[in-house]
Design goal:
CATH superfamily of the largest domain: NadA-like
Number of strands: 13
Bound molecules: 1,3-dihydroxyacetonephosphate, iron/sulfur cluster
Helix content: 40-55%
Radius of gyration: 19 Å
Shape: globular
Structural class: alpha/beta
Strand content: 5-15%
Largest sheet: 5 strands, mixed
CATH topology of the largest domain: Rossmann fold
Number of helices: 15
CATH class of the largest domain: Alpha Beta
CATH architecture of the largest domain: 3-Layer(aba) Sandwich
Oligomer: single chain
């Protein structure tokens, strides 16, 4: 699945760009942002730069300056095929590192280097080496939400959009799937013939949802469609109507056009979908990712003005990490 969306890469008058986000950015606040939007558009042209934005970025980024918007898989695919000289990753650090691994000769920038991820922080390369000693011969499938050093110790990467297909592609009876325990358990439920060993890493955003949240939403909004991200605990996924990556949730909404939807995921997902699907009503419970929210229009502008913060990956990690990412990209999901 490749659900990347080309957003504001085209040249539109600023008033038309504001019209897209008018429900999120009131007219009184727009002048403060319009200068950044205009400057970013000009800098992108001057620097032959592209802005890749994750679906959890705020609407005023996704719908004003992003050239490509997508899930982790789509951003990795776009990073692999772009001919821009500069890639600005409006997302978190592991996404920018993945773009650098795929483009070692390009300038890859992250507007705030402190935009991390609780999953990436949950495991080190030494942990993976230790797992390999404990489970010799068992292939290691590593979620892209990890450092380059961890990817370099792995056989293949996966995202939430291709995790099942990646595990199946190995043809193994036993697989280590790290570091997201819940994603691994959710894939295990779909692949009962394969033993999936995991790690106790969690997404700090999705681990907070409970099955009770979903039951309460169904009571409050009878007939509501519930979509959940597979980083949620299995008890939450079991109560949902559908679980999938951010791109898969978007595809579900756009194909089925449910009247009312609860998105059990990061808040911006529903905000961005509501702009593209004004006929669908979105009710939230949702949780904010503090890392994603570190990225702002002002920081994207500074990033392009000063070519900071440049993401680097040590030379000795590039080849092994790229092998694991490229092997993933070759799997049809
Ligand atoms: P996807 O967009 O790949 O579903 O990932 C969700 C996420 O949490 C990324 O940090
Ligand atoms: Fe990491 Fe979760 Fe934030 Fe995604 S939403 S960046 S998995 S902490």
């Amino acid at each position: 699945m490749d659900a990347a969306i080309r957003e504001a890469g085209e040249r539109l008058p600023l008033a038309d760009i504001h019209a897209r986000v008018r429900h999120h950015v009131p007219a009184a606040e727009w002048p403060a942002l319009a200068g950044d939007v205009a400057a970013i558009q000009a800098l992108k042209r001057a620097r032959n730069a592209v802005v890749l934005a994750h679906n959890y970025q705020a609407p005023e980024i996704v719908h004003t300056v992003a050239d490509i918007v997508g899930d982790s898989l789509a951003l990795a695919r776009e990073a692999a095929r772009t001919d821009a000289d500069v890639i600005v990753l409006a997302g978190v650090h592991f996404m920018a590192e993945t773009a650098k691994i795929l483009n070692p000769d390009k300038t890859v920038l992250i507007p705030d280097p402190a935009a991390g991820c609780s999953l990436a922080d949950s495991i080190t390369a030494a942990d993976v080496r230790d797992l390999r000693r404990r489970y010799p011969g068992v292939p290691v499938v590593t979620y892209v939400n990890t450092s380059a050093a961890v990817k370099a110790e792995s056989d293949i990467c996966c995202t939430s959009g291709n995790a099942k297909a990646v595990v199946e592609s190995l043809g193994a009876k036993r697989v280590l799937m790290i570091p997201d325990e819940y994603l691994a358990q959710n894939v295990q439920a779909e692949l009962p013939g394969i033993e999936i060993l995991t790690w106790a890493g969690h997404c700090e955003v999705h681990e907070r949802f409970t099955a009770a949240d979903i039951r309460e939403a169904r009571e409050a909004y009878p007939g509501v469609t519930v979509l959940a991200h597979p980083e949620c605990p299995p008890a939450v996924v079991a109560e949902a109507d559908f679980a999938g990556s951010t791109a898969a949730m978007q595809a579900y909404v756009e194909a089925r056009r449910p009247a009312q939807v609860v998105m059990i995921t990061e808040c911006a997902m529903a905000d961005n979908l509501a702009i593209r699907n004004p006929d669908v009503a979105f009710v939230k419970p949702c949780n904010l990712c503090p890392h994603m929210k570190r990225i702002t229009l002002g920081k994207i502008r500074r990033s392009l003005e000063t070519l900071t913060h440049e993401v680097t990956v040590p030379d000795d990690l590039i080849a092994p990490a790229r092998r694991a990412v490229a092997r993933m990209l070759a799997v049809r999901a």
